Amino acid sequence: MPIAIEAASAPPRAPLLTFPEPLASRLVGRTRCPLGDPFGLTRFGVNLTRLAPGSMSALRHCHAQQDEFVYILEGSPVLVTDAGETPLGPGMCAGFKAGSGDAHHLVNRTAADVVYLEIGDRTPGDNVTYPDDDVAIDRDPDGRMRVVRKDGSPI
To answer: Of 19, 66, 97, 116, which is least packed with CB atoms within 10 Å of its CB?
Structure first.
């Protein structure tokens, strides 16, 4: 394992889940580069994430078990939560407490890239809720995550 790396050289990670269309198209333009994985970190994750103009960080969601935190490095995304929209800029941060039920995501409505650090814990058994879309994260009998409809039926 390395002792240190150049964050910008971390390779991007393929998405862990595949959403059906038209939802998948809404996530085009997001690149996540895991920064903790090269060091073998297992209790929390750190991603250097880039949003191209017009893209979003994720479908608006909230976690039952996992905390999340973002720190804006470059650009001016809009944070969308249950409370509405909040413009963010470099040096600003936001946190999302597990179990709060406050769904959130970042949207890049500018002509420039947005770059931010995304930090979250890896508490097992997390459930993710997507209030704006008919999708949910479920686990198959082997424990692998899968995308299903909110009623649990396959997509």
So the answer is: 97
> Long-range contacts: 37-42, Cβ < 8 Å, 24+?
37/13, 38/1, 38/2, 38/5, 38/10, 39/1, 39/2, 40/1, 42/122
Domains within the chain, CATH numbers bracketed: 7-125 (2.60.120.10)
State the DSSP code for 61.
B
pTM summary value: 0.92
Q: Is 43 exposed, middle or buried (0-12, 13-18, 19+ CB in 10 A)?
A: exposed
Report the relative pairing of strands 84-87 and 78-81 from DSSP bridges.
Answer: antiparallel
From the CB of residue 150, how many other CB atoms can be counted at a distance below 10 Å? 12
Please report the pLDDT score of residue 15 as a whole number: 81
Number of other residues whose CB lies within 10 A of the CB of residue 108 = 22
Name the band, by pLDDT with cuts 50, 70 and 90, for residue 155.
Answer: confident
| Per-residue confidence (pLDDT) for residue 35, from 0 to 100 | 97
Q: What distance in Å separates the CA atoms of residue 65 and residue 44, rounded to the nearest whole number?
A: 13
Q: How far is CA 135 from the centre of its chain?
A: 15
Residue type, position 72, single letter? I
